[in-house]
Amino acid sequence: MTAQADAPRAATGPRHRARSPIVPPGLQPAALTAVLAGLLAATAPLGQAQALPAVVLLQAVTAAGWFRLNGMWPARQGILLAFAGGIAADAAVLAAPADRAPEALLGVLGAWFLLVLVLQLRHRGSADERLDSLTATAASTLLTIVAAGHLAAADVSGRAVAVTAAGVAVAVLLRAVVPGPAFLGFALGLLGAAGAGALAADRVDGLGAAAVALAAAGGLCALIGHRVASYDFPSRFVHFTAGVALPLTAAAPAVYPLARALL
Predict the structure, then answer these.
(1) Do 163 and 197 contact (CB within 8 A), yes or no?
(2) Nearest-angstrom CA–CA distance, 189 and 72
(3) What sign has the CA pseudo-torsion 80, 82, 83, 88?
(4) How many structural domains compose the chain?
(5) Range of 243's domain?
(6) What is the pLDDT of residue 263?
(7) Would 163 be classed as within a structural domain?
(8) Residue 87 covered by a domain
(9) Is the pLDDT of residue 110 over 50?
């Protein structure tokens, strides 16, 4: 009787998971993203050293959140490795000239990927476990190092970083509070980010129309990061780590090239 009762549940389990909804992080993680973006926006115009604490905090939450998003917890060694890569990237960016920041980041990324591969050789799990560990650690390292792009951009124009961060904050907040279909929140979030850039264009000297492009790009990247952090069968830890960090981390690769190209 028990075997007969268990069989239908076993058969329907995978289909139930396949139908499970993608759940956005919600308003509280969006508000924390906005606070972190506001901290970066307030400090970046003052210089790289002043923006460093906000970037380090972003990197720490990114490293932890990516592992939990992939269902790997605890993973202390991988988190520490990814976070150490972020710190090394910060040091390289601070030491490099503004026009050499991409090379500095690529150098750290290459060295850390090699370190990741070497450490995975000591993994004693099955082939599938080793592959999961390798991909999660490599991706977390990539994202944590890429977050240093905010620090690199602050050396080009701290105001550009501030406007991009404002676009991130507005986009995720609107995405979180707008009811209805997901595409509506996405569209309004992107429009809100562009509107924040237009407002900054009138109030921040030296940016002009570039402010709209920076804020809109930050908003678009933030919405993509927000969607990645949405999770079926979600946990609060995922929402309050990956859901907080990924929108702002995703904007890092956009702000540096745009600041160099537009300003």
Answers:
(1) yes
(2) 31
(3) positive
(4) 1
(5) 34-262
(6) 79
(7) yes
(8) yes
(9) yes
DSSP structure string for 14-47: HHHHHTPPPB---HHHHHHHHHHHHHHHHHGGG-
- Orientation angle between helical segments 27-43 and 158-177, nearest 10 degrees: 170
194 to 1, 181, 183, 198, 209: CA distances (angstroms): 61, 21, 17, 6, 11
Q: Which residues pair with 231 in a beta bridge?
A: 23
Residue with tokens 């115009």: 45
Angle at 6 between CA 3 and CA 10, to 5 degrees: 130
Q: Is residue 1 part of a domain?
A: no
- 167-188: average pLDDT: 91
Tokens 């972003």 found at: 58
Q: Buried b vs exposed e over 154-163: b needs ≥16 C-beta within 10 Å? A: bbbbbbbbbb
- Residue 10 domain-assigned? no
Is 108 within 8 Å of 145 (Cβ atoms)? yes
* Whether the predicted pLDDT of 11 surpasses 50: no
CB atoms within 10 A of CB 174: 22
Is the pTM of the predicted complex or chain greater than 0.90?
Answer: no
Q: pLDDT per residue over 21-55, tens digit each?
A: 688 888 999 999 999 999 999 999 999 999 999 99
Q: Which amino acid is at 39?
A: L
- Cα 82 to Cα 113: distance, rounded to the nearest angstrom: 10
Range with the largest mean pLDDT of 149-153, 231-235, 258-262: 149-153
Stretch (H or E) spanning 1: none
Mention every residue, 6+ apart, whose C-beta is less than 8 A from residue 220.
171, 190, 193, 254
Both structure tokens of 26: 């919600």
Long-range contacts of 117-126 (CB under 8 A, 24+ apart): 119/77, 119/81
Q: For residue 157, what is the enclosing H or E element? A: none
